[in-house]
Known about the structure:
Chain A is mostly helical. Chain A is 67% helix and 0% strand. In chain B, strands 3-2-1-4-5 form a 5-stranded mixed beta sheet. In chain B, helix 3 (104-114) links the parallel strand 2 and strand 3. The N and C termini of chain B lie far apart (59 Å).
Amino acid sequence: MPTRVISSLVLAFLLAVGAQSFTSDVHAAVDVYDFETAEQERRFRELSNEFRCPMCQNANLSSSPGGVAADLRREIYRMIMEGQTDQQIEEFMLARYGDFILYRPRLTLQTVLLWFGPLLFLAMGIWVAISIMRRSGHVSPDSVSTLSSAEEARLKELLAKKKDSASDRI
Amino acid sequence: MKNLKLYLPVIGFAVLAVFMWRGLYLDSRTLPSVLLDRPLPEFELRTLEAGDQLVTREDLPDEPFILNIWGSYCLPCLQENPIFMAAREAGIIPIVGVNYKDTDDAAREWLDDNGNPFTMSIVDDTGRYGIDLGVYGAPETFIVDAQGVIRYKHIGVIDYQVWDDEIMPVIAAVQAEEGS
Lengths: 170, 180
């Protein structure tokens, strides 16, 4: 039974991976550009994956079928062939479409929370955890319950009774 | 102090809730233009009217004008056209068209069928000038002042409400500036 579960999980995983590679193949075939070097081609792929399509908004330039995405890919190609650096290409995009075009937001005053928010939450969590642990680890004398001798006797009696009834059942 | 600690989770929740509530109503489809308060990008392009003769920024009106990105394939542009026609007839403001990623024939036919509100239509058939303008689809509309500086951008269709509530006040402000 467990092997069947495992094998079906493996199958599902393989199917998912297969579907993924299939769709990215389809997208990659949208336009054909000739490059002089493999390095140029690698940069083109990388850059068109880095920028976000301004029209479809939830796709990068390389996977977007939108008209403006194709235009922007053409511009990236042109700039790579003209020998411009990645930095220059990024500036070109930023000057026209703003921060939105970057999937990886720049560190500015507006994005500080975005970058360091998770760390802030982690710090808050650690602080809460530490204070809880400290409180439960620290036992004050007041909090130790003290029983009177009569109470203690009754406690013993109750525990003995419980033991008996438990052994009865077995 | 003890009390404050007690309310901390509630305060945290309230802050988050306010942000997320606002987030529900943010329009993520219209991007703020980085070109606001910048001069209109340079160009050297044909127009639908003047054949092969190229125009540049020098050929644009010396007064405030509207720059409208349009195409014959663009349905919302049909909706805007009567508003622009009325504005032209009333002499409110000159409107320059940018015929974006279209063919000349289809564009001319569209103007014949629906009326031509544009003083001229700059031809951007490759969409290259659109990229310089940060355009990502027709229709988009810019208001440019007398100095050639972009003062306002509207993404998407301009209906009567947008025209009255958003476009007209900007036109009035920009034209008043010019007069002073």
